Amino acid sequence: MSRKCAGPGLIAVVAFVVGCGSNTWIVKRPVADQCSSAGVKQCDELVNGLVQYIDGDKAGAEVKLRAVAKANSPEKLRTLTAAIKPATKVLGSERQAAVDGVIDILEGREPVASEAKAAHGSELGAAVGLTAGLVKVRTGMASPAGDPRAIPCDAGPLAVEQDRCRKVRAIVGPITVTNIYASGACPDEVFAFAGRAENPHWFLGALPNAPLNVSGAFAVEEGEELFVGVRSLTKDPPTADARCSIVWSGVVRSG
């Protein structure tokens, strides 16, 4: 019995589906393979950050990409970034400016594409109701268990023995926090909160081995402090390595 090949109508439908909306999914596997070959850590975060950045959520993606950069050596990252361009050529020339921005972040530079930077500022400004030209992006990272600035969680609902919970003052308000990120590899609880530990203005947390990946507009008022921390649920001290790092990003008025 002879089989009929797909007709022009079916081909047209397939082309329409692939051609509409985001097609960044097609680079996930090639980039993941290159990441694994280069021996880079946190490949899932890298791939998700790359796709997120190219699709336009640059604020959330930058937090993930900088965490990947922090967790890897410059040599491994250079090997990876050299392979990213060929792996993403299928996306077309109009998306290469965003790919260049990802490479800049992984190599420790600010994204150089002016259009990408302008779009980034506009998205952040819109998220918090500010004009793009009047905001400044602030980003930080801490590994609370090993940070010399860390202090005990000696008050409020997090209070435990001094060596089981450590927190770091990230920044003093006013600031609008737009992203809090931890990879999900930490064997302890991770958290972030604003205000007094006894009665936080707001609190975000994740259980052991669960990611903390939150985007929004969380106000830290004038004089309030933003803390990030880690708490062990066992009798042992919390883990003092990069797995328990917490990255935050936000915007402040620049004028």
**For the terminal residues, how far apart are their CA atoms?**
76 Å
Given helix and strand content, the structural type is alpha+beta
Number of domains: 2
- For the record, the CATH architecture of the largest domain stands as Sandwich
The share of residues in extended strands comes to: 25-35%
DSSP helix fraction: 25-40%
Give average pLDDT, whole number: 79
Strand order of the largest sheet: 2-3-8-5-6
**Strands, total number:** 9
Shape: globular
CATH topological fold name of the largest domain:
Jelly Rolls
Topology:
Layout: H1 8-19, H2 28-37, H3 43-54, H4 58-71, H5 74-88, H6 96-106, H7 114-128, E1 135-142, E2 151-152, E3 165-172, E4 175-182, E5 189-196, E6 199-206, E7 212-220, E8 225-231, E9 246-253
Antiparallel strand pairs: 1-9, 2-3, 3-8, 4-7, 4-9, 5-6, 5-8
Helix pairs in contact: 2-3, 2-5, 3-4, 3-6, 5-6
